Structure formats: C-alpha cells, structure tokens
Amino acid sequence: MTPLLELRGVHHGYRQGGLFSRRRQPVLEEAGLTIGPGECVALLGPTGSGKSTLGRLMLGLEAPEAGRILFEGQPLRDARGRVAPATRRAIQAVFQDPFGATSPRLSAFAVVAEPLLAERLPAAELRARVAGLMLRVGLEPGLMDRLAHRLSGGQLQRLCIARALAPGPRLVLLDEAVNSLDLETQGRILALLADLRRQAGVAYLFITHDLRLVRGFADRCYVMQERRPVEVADPFGPGPQPPALAALRAAILPARPRSRGPLAHETLTTGAAPRQPIQQF
C-alpha cells in the first residue's frame, strides 16, 4: 500500500549569526518517516529536537534542503516549489496554543468558516456547514456568534479541530495539540480525536514531548534521535530503547512515590502532609 505521506532522506537546517553569516545549524539529517492512510503516528522528542521543523516541512510551509517528501506517492511540491491547493486542503494542522492560532477579532463562526470561503457557499449553507462541524466536535452551534477568545481553552481547541476538519483533510498534524490543556480536558480531546478518526478515516501525525499521551492513541511511534525520527516497536516495552526515549520515560513521575523518597522525607521533617504527585494520564 502506498503511504499517505512519506519522508525520504530529508535534510534541513537554519542559518545562524545574522543576515550575512554562513553558519548553519543542522536540524534534520537523513530523516525518514511514513504515515499510512487512516493511521495515527506519534512523533516524540524533547523541545528543540526538530519535531516542529519536521511538521512544517510536511505542511509545505518550508522546503527541505535535501531529500523528498511525498504525499500519496507524488512530490509534495512541484518543480517550482509550490504545493497544490488540493494538497494544502488535504493536510491540515492543529497547534498547541489555540489562542495564538486564532484572531481575537473573529467569532467562532468566522474561525471555522475561514477554510470554506473559497467554496463560495450561500450564507445559509455556510452557516449550516459550520454548525455541523461544531456539533461534530461537541460544541453547541449557539456559540457561533460569540468571540472565539471568549471560549475556554478546551472549547477553543475543539473549535480549531473543527476548522482543521472543514476542508475534509486526509491527514491532520497535531503539533502539541493537547499539551497546554489540563489532564481532564486532554482526555476529552484525545477521545474526540479518536472518534473522528474512526468516523472519517483521517490520519494523524501526533507530535508531542509527553510520552503518557501516546498510550492507547497512536498505532506507531517515532522518537527524535540524532536529528532524525527513529521508529520504536513499543515505547513502553522492556529492553533497550533509544536514549531520547529513555529520557522521556524517566521524566514520567510515578503514580505513587516511594515511601523513602523526597516527599516522605518532607513529611517526617516538617510534619506537613506530602504534596500529591501528578497521576499518570
């Protein structure tokens, strides 16, 4: 089966030191990754490891210095470096900060309707389409005329998901899309995304630095290691793992601290009740 999206030997970097500097900081080297139709692929890595750069290349916002990016077996960019409008509609994104990804001047209706304006729909039909998309992500259509920034963080992120679904994409890039939300809202958004995937067959690239969010959500997993994605069979399994993954696993707090750990020591020396640990998601 032809992958929906594929990276082959991709190199990319950025110039450092000002306009006339020739110094270059490599970010990706020999990067390779595949996403199948309807598949959810997780991309893990710490901040600064190149995850978001890889995402921008997949969205066509930047061109790689070397290597190939294929969408449905065809180059993402044509010979003149352009991404076809149909391909742009087929690959959408949901970012970490919903407030930064939307204008404070726009209503909820305008946020979701924006990618549909090119279709030049009659006003009544456009409003009905937006209402259907909002219902699809669990938002009441009655919120349409409210300023988007007056919604809660979880509601606004649902609105951004509705906007991403509006053009009928084949692939949605989720760039730290739930990391800024509280644990309860994270669970609700992930459950919503899983339902939408089953209903519409959309594929996801789930970019995150939080290993806990991957369990039960992603089909396959890559971790950024030495400027390239490395596929891991089971990020939670025993045996040797890439150092970057081992560091992410070590960063997860245990559900219950050891009786002789720092929290227990705090109780013995101060008499105060120990702080509650963050539960695993």
Structural notes for this entry:
With 281 residues, the protein is α/β, with parallel strands linked by helices. The protein folds into two domains: 180 residues, Rossmann fold, CATH 3.40.50; 29 residues, no CATH class. The protein has eight helices and ten strands. The strands form two sheets. The protein has a six-stranded mixed beta sheet, sandwiched between helices. Strand 4 and strand 5 form a beta hairpin. Helix 4 packs across helix 5. It is globular. The C terminus is likely disordered.
Summarize the structure.
The chain is of the alpha/beta class and 281 residues long.
Number of domains: 2
CATH superfamily of the largest domain: P-loop containing nucleotide triphosphate hydrolases
Mind summarizing the main beta sheet?
6 strands, mixed
Structural class: alpha/beta
Order of helices and strands: EEEHEEHEHHHEHEEEHH
Share of residues in helices: 25-40%
CATH topology of the largest domain: Rossmann fold
Please give the radius of gyration in angstroms. 21 Å
CATH architecture of the largest domain: 3-Layer(aba) Sandwich
Instruction: Please work out how many helical segments DSSP would assign.
Output: 8
Strand content is 15-25%
β-strand number: 10
Cα(first) to Cα(last) distance is: 34 Å
Overall spatial form: globular
Instruction: Give the averaged pLDDT, no decimals.
Output: 84
Helices and strands in order, then pairings?
Blueprint: E1 5-16, E2 23-35, E3 40-44, H1 51-59, E4 66-71, E5 74-75, H2 85-90, E6 91-94, H3 108-113, H4 123-136, H5 153-165, E7 171-175, H6 183-200, E8 203-208, E9 220-225, E10 228-232, H7 243-250, H8 262-270
Parallel strand pairs: 3-8, 3-9, 6-7, 7-8
Antiparallel strand pairs: 1-2, 1-4, 4-5, 9-10
Helix pairs in contact: 4-5
